[in-house]
Automatic annotation (TrEMBL):
InterPro entries xref list: MTPAP-like_central (IPR054708), NT_sf (IPR043519), PAP_assoc (IPR002058), RL (IPR041252)
Domain Poly(A) RNA polymerase mitochondrial-like central palm: 138-296
Name of the protein described by the UniProt record: PAPD1 protein
Cofactor(s) the protein requires to work: Mn(2+); Mg(2+)
Residue ranges of domain PAP-associated in the record: 391-426
GO molecular function term, any single one: poly(A) RNA polymerase activity
Taxonomic classification: Eukaryota, Metazoa, Chordata, Craniata, Vertebrata
């Protein structure tokens, strides 16, 4: 691509466009159990050149095949039959999901070759801890965690394919529509196994911009008019949801949640193994995804610290996969960004600084909010900060263990603490919708638990004798922070909790006793 030729990092939009186009040329095949890889590729190549492929396990072996040309798919589809199942009647929707079986299994099974399978989930915390103990510094421990947890190239391709398969349905009604992933699938902070958030978009920007104003007439489509955008969204999602439910191969557990603040359709996509949430385009959510993408690309320490803090929070039950009063991963990520803006010198720029660098094409005003920031990464000066991740991790816990949450709020636009506009226990300004607090759901006990855990972690990192722990085969550094606390000595912990309400301490110590086993279970299960 042009970006690579000039040696610059691709913009968020370039990456998105490229991956969506790639997904259009891709098919997914459920393979026979005893497979000869060479034979499969040889056969498929008769329909056109294969640009890339990989295998993965998900109730059987699947192959994702990316052709160089989109036409190859039509050629392959021509050769594929409709299932002959006497006991079922099929819905004759022809997708890009196929099942291959061997015509004469016995003779062909002899030619089976071992396949390399791409992992689609991360290792359990227990295994991670063992790996971390072999590293030589906390910094390398953090990079090991990042490598184990981050989305792989293959997993990202699968996510875009899931979107592309949904798009095949929406196009039946809205030929110009696109379905794009947003949030953790694209912001560089997603971990293996996270849901796919996708949205349906009708605004094909290019077409809109080039509309010529020639001729004597104002011309427009006749379209159905509804009293509100929300109602239109609900109607569209309701029909698409029914479509997926009734006709979508492998779409199961379809739930339409149309009365939510942001109406959505939840479903499980069995062929790819993803849990998916489909909503209608939300421009602000996309700007948030791009902002995080920029921060994630600027400095390798950013992602390593975010992944570490999120894994730590998960193990200690500070975050949870079910909604509630817990801190969300998004809030935690924003807290890490804020901390990195506050370092001296800063590791990442504030949002206001990114806005200063924006040019005409970066201007975005959405619903009255200014969401402009620079998209070209090469315009942002690299940080002069040389602190190691060893230092940054300890400092993060130190900083938030002593943060004045009663008085101050966290503002990423300015990169500084500002007085709270209202009394929520934790106040983090939404970077774009300036009157919203992204952590409004968090209650006082949960915030106090976070502070207690941060203090405990800062203390462990300061006091720990690495050599001693390595000799006695105890987890050290980051590994020591991923073992539930209070196990070794709950009374030690009490002394470090001065200034935290005694009620909270009591409930904390109780929850520690309860949650040691549970949290590992949860962390491993997730």
């Amino acid at each position: 691509t042009d970006a690579e030729l000039s040696g610059r990092k691709k913009t968020f939009t370039e990456v998105q466009t490229e991956r969506l186009e790639q997904a259009e040329r891709t098919v997914l095949i459920k393979c026979p159990p005893k497979l000869n890889e060479k034979k499969l590729l040889q056969y498929l190549s008769s329909h056109g050149n294969i640009k890339s492929h990989f295998f993965f396990e998900n109730r059987g072996i699947h192959a994702l095949i990316e052709f160089s040309e989109k036409d190859s798919i039509a050629s392959l589809q021509d050769a594929i039959g409709i299932p002959r199942a006497a006991e079922h009647h099929v819905v004759p929707f022809k997708s890009r999901l196929f099942t291959f079986t061997l015509k004469n299994p016995v003779s062909q099974a002899a030619e089976e070759t071992p396949l390399h399978l791409s992992p689609q989930s991360h290792i359990p915390v227990k295994e991670l801890i063992q790996k971390l103990c072999c590293a030589d510094s906390i910094s390398s421990q953090m990079y090991i965690l990042l490598n184990e947890y981050q989305l792989t190239e293959e997993n990202i391709k699968l996510r875009f394919l899931a979107c592309s398969l949904v798009r095949d349905f929406t196009r039946a009604y809205f030929p110009d529509s696109t379905v794009k992933p947003f949030g953790s699938s694209v912001n560089t902070f997603g971990k293996l196994g996270c849901d796919v958030d996708m949205f349906l978009d009708f605004h094909d920007v290019q077409k809109h911009a080039t509309k010529t104003k020639k001729g004597p007439f104002e011309m427009e489509y006749q379209m159905k008019r509804l009293p509100s955008e929300r109602l239109a969204t609900q109607k569209i999602l309701s029909v698409i949801g029914d479509c997926l439910d009734n006709f979508g191969p492998g779409c199961v557990s379809v739930q339409k949640i149309l009365n939510a603040r942001c109406p959505l359709v939840k479903f499980s996509h069995q062929p790819t193994g993803f849990q998916c949430d489909l909503s209608v385009s939300n421009s602000i959510a996309i700007r948030s995804s791009e902002l995080l993408y920029i921060y994630g690309c600027l400095d390798s320490r950013v992602r390593a610290l975010v992944f570490t803090v999120r894994c730590w929070a998960r193990v200690h039950g500070l975050t949870n996969s079910v909604p509630g009063n817990w801190i969300t991963n998004f809030s935690l990520t924003m807290m890490v960004m804020f901390f990195l803006q506050k370092r001296s010198p800063p590791i990442i720029p504030t949002l206001d600084q990114l806005k200063e660098l924006a040019d005409e094409k970066d201007k975005h005003i959405i619903g009255g909010y200014d969401c402009s920031f620079v998209s070209d990464l090469s315009k942002i000066k690299p940080s002069k900060n040389t602190e190691t991740l060893d230092v940054l991790l300890g400092e993060f816990f130190e900083y938030f263990g002593n943060f004045d949450f009663v008085k101050n709020s966290i503002n990423l636009r300015k990169g500084k603490e500002v007085n709270k506009p209202e009394s929520s226990p934790l106040y983090i300004w939404n970077p774009f919708e300036q009157d919203l607090n992204i952590s409004k759901n968090v209650n006082q006990p949960q915030l106090e638990k976070f502070v207690a855990m941060a203090r405990e972690s800062a203390w462990i990192l300061q006091k720990e004798d690495k050599t001693q722990r390595v000799i006695s085969k105890e987890p050290w550094g980051l590994a020591a922070l991923l073992v539930p606390f209070g196990k070794s000595n709950p009374s030690k912990m009490k002394n470090r909790m001065k200034g935290i309400g005694s009620e909270t301490i009591r409930s904390l110590l109780d929850s520690l006793k309860l949650s040691n086993s549970n949290n590992l279970q949860k962390a491993v299960g997730k």
